[in-house]
Every structure is written in C-alpha cells, then in structure tokens.
Design a protein that fits this description.
five-stranded parallel sheet, four-stranded parallel sheet, FAD/NAD(P)-binding domain, alpha/beta, 401 residues
Length: 401
C-alpha cells in the first residue's frame, strides 16, 4: 500500500509516525509531502513575536527524523489532488496513493478585511513563522516609539488563543518598561463574550478574563466586526474608529489552494468535509486532520466565530485517522471519540491551564487553573514536544496542552 501524507506539521507528523508503527514497513510505503522543509511548533509563535524565541529555537529539519523511521520525505508544494485517479500533483511531479491524509493546515483569508497583514496590509499576525518574525521586528521598533494598540481577531476567526496571549505578553513587556501609559490597549473580538474561544467558553473563564483586562486598563469590544485596517486605525462595522499605531489582528482562515482548487474535495471555504472517523464523506481513501478539516461552529453568534482546531485536537484527529487507515487495511474495527481540548495560555507573568472535555458543550469537564507553575509547564512542554516529535514519539502526558 502507498500512503501519502500532505503536510509536515503536528497533524501530518503524528499521522505518519503512527501509521509507521501500525503497519509493517515491508508492505506499506509512507510518504510525507510538505512545502516546508522544517517542522515549526506553531503554539510558540507568540514568543517569537515578542522576541523571546527564534524560529530556529522552535523548529527542526523534517527529512532526517522521517527517513530514520522509514518514511519518505518530499519537499514540494502540492498544487492539486485528483481523488478519482488517487493522485497528488506538485509543481514538478505526481504521486499515486492508495490512502491519502490531508494535513495541509490553513490559508489566512486576508482578503476578508481590507488592511489585514502583514504582507497584504498594515496590521500584523501570528499565523505563520514569517508573520511572527515580521511582528517581532515591528514590535521592537514599536517599543522605541510606543502608541495606541489594537489587538484582536477578525470576523470569522477561529484561532483566538494567540490574540489573547499576545495581549497579555505585550502588556507584561510594556509594564516591565514602564510604558503602559504610552501604549493604551484595546481588545477587539467577534466573540459574544471574552473567553468564548469559538467553543462557548470554559467554566468561569469569561469572568476571569474580564477581570484581568479591567485590572490592566485594557478596554475591550465583544461582538465586534473589524471592517478596515489602516496605518493609524482599526475601523469597526458599526462606525467606531480605534486609533492604532500597532494592530495585531488574527484573520479568519480558509483552506489551502491545493484543496480549494481540487473539484469535489473541499467545501466552499476550502476545508475538507469528514465523518466521525476523519474520512472524507465522498472519498473513502482520503482522510483529513487538523485545520484542514471542516467542523461546524458550536453555535450561531451575532458576529461569526468559527470552531478552533488546536494542536491538541489536531493530534487527536491524526491518531484517530491513522488507526482507522490501519484498521481499514488490516480489516479491523474503525474507531472515533469526541475531541477534548487542553491548552495553556501564557499571560506574561503567569499562565492559565484550560480543560474542556468534550470540547463541544455540554461537557463532563470544564475548568481552568491559573498560576506561575503553568507558565513554567508551558515552557517545558514546548521543548519536550520538539524533543519527542523529532524522535517519532506521538504520545503526550495528559496535562501538556
């Protein structure tokens, strides 16, 4: 059997390494195709933006770890997928498959709001290594000449955590330099309340975040739709204009062109529709995991807030997909389970550990815990994750995300 995995981030690597353990090497060829040669631990990008880490600190080259496990690696951008012919096309060649795992991640839909950047407009973002590096450079310049800041998310955003992390980390950095009075902050979010996170909130996280922002003199606007971003302001759909010398705005996401440009593969936004086993609803030999998956929001909100796909949830999807491919090949029973969410949010001088099980309400567990110990735990886990995934290990302690 020929199994192709598209994508070399957490979802792609977890699926590939698990498949290698589950399937005999002599009978099954596994190939990872990734446009990027390096794995980057995406949850650490806010630290890159703040100048605490570099991309080199949170990444490694993919080829050696994959080949050491008997997995082929091809550094190429996939341009199109033909589900009928079971073929993946790149700029230079084609690859046939018996099973396909799509772990392609996202495309930032910057066209949705004029001014979303950094490469399409004046605002900044944290959705890729290049954007985090740009944010780091401009943040250093901002500290030399501070002014009003607007931090938040565009309508339809789903990756909301990095905006909160940047807010708290930026405030902590300004406070250490006694610059808070020169850089008034406003937080803008499409969420109906702080801490909604696209999943309806977690326990008492709403009250906690409201108190934390108020304690920092950070004004905030919920159910807010950003309509335009300029060099000096962020404009809202209701006519309000917020002054901004530095705007960090997380965009809404869309599927990558390779999926969107392959007829019948994705939905109108370019995400892959799957069943409970993470198998494509129309093509039984195609699976999808992570941000590439089409998942409905938990509820309708006045301003659109989409369902998040965290690193922890991506790992769960990838492990389920790998087990189901192996079961399909070997004749075993398909498996699935409800996704749960676990993450640690950096707040500069402390962190918050959040658990929601399952992630969609109603839940059996919905809780959070704050303290400096969680900040140390987050820093430990970032290093631990890089160490273990580089060695092909895909199991993590329960508390880590």
């Amino acid at each position: 059997m020929r199994i192709v995995v598209i994508g070399g981030s957490s979802g792609g690597l977890t699926a590939a390494f698990d498949l290698r353990r589950l399937l005999p090497r002599r009978d099954h060829e596994i190939t990872v195709i990734s446009r990027d040669r390096r794995f980057v631990f995406i949850p650490s990008l806010p630290w890159v933006a703040m100048g605490e880490k570099t991309i080199a600190d949170i990444s490694f080259d993919l080829e050696r770890p994959l080949r050491s496990k008997g997995i082929n690696f091809i550094a190429a951008a996939v341009t199109r997928i033909d589900p009928e012919a079971r073929t993946v096309h790149t700029d230079t060649e084609s690859h046939d498959y018996d099973y396909l795992v799509i772990a392609t991640g996202h495309r930032s839909a910057n066209e949705a709001v004029p001014g979303l950047g950094p490469f399409d407009g004046p605002s900044h973002s944290l959705m890729s290594p290049a954007e985090a590096e740009e944010a780091r450079e401009t943040w250093a310049a901002f500290l030399r000449d501070p002014g009003p800041m607007v931090i938040g998310c565009a309508p339809g955003a789903s990756c909301l955590g990095p905006a909160y992390e940047f807010l708290f980390e930026a405030h902590h950095a300004l406070k250490r330099r006694s610059l808070c009075h020169k850089a008034p902050m406003v937080y803008v979010t499409p969420e109906p309340f702080l801490g909604h996170f696209g999943v309806g909130g977690f326990g008492k996280i709403r009250q906690f975040l409201e108190g934390e922002l108020e304690a920092r003199d950070v004004r905030y606007h919920t159910s807010a739709a950003i309509s335009k971003i300029t060099e000096s302001a962020v404009e809202l759909a209701d006519g309000r204009t917020l002054k901004a010398r530095y705007a960090m705005i997380i965009p809404s996401l869309a599927g990558v062109p390779a999926v969107a440009d392959s007829p019948g593969l994705g939905n109108p936004k370019g995400f892959v529709p799957v069943d409970a086993h993470y198998r494509h609803k129309d093509f039984e030999r195609i699976y999808a995991v992570g941000v590439a998956v089409a998942l409905p929001p938990v509820e309708e909100t006045p301003v659109a807030v989409n369902f998040p796909k965290t690193g922890h949830m991506t790992e769960q999807m990838a492990k389920i997909a790998a087990r189901n491919i192996a079961a399909d090949i070997a004749g075993g029973e398909m498996t699935s389970h409800e996704l749960m969410a676990e993450c640690i949010m950096d707040m500069g001088d402390k962190a918050v550990h959040i658990v929601a099980d399952p992630v969609r309400p109603p839940r059996n567990v919905s809780e959070f815990s704050k303290g400096r110990r969680w900040l140390w735990a987050k820093r430990f886990f970032a290093n631990y994750y890089l160490w273990k995934i580089r060695r092909g290990a895909t199991r993590s302690p329960k508390w880590v995300w």
